Amino acid sequence: xxxxxxxxxxxxxxxxxxxxxxxxxxxxxxxxxxxxxxxxxxxxxxxxxxxxxxxxxxxxxxxxxxxxxxxxxxxxxx
Length: 78
Hints:
The protein is an alpha+beta fold. Helices cover 29% and strands 10% of the residues. It is flat.
């Protein structure tokens, strides 16, 4: 069974914020995905601002385009 719910983690304790549809004792797999608040997202965006100022974007685009024309895959002969 696969079910994704939101919850909080604090001081070693995981608290579901939604109803869990599991009965009895079960082994579960817990994956942590840390959500950023809007303020945190804005801060990250502000800190990244200007980080590409010294990059020659036209050259970068040419290199990306040229690299896409080169295949790294082995060809199969049918």
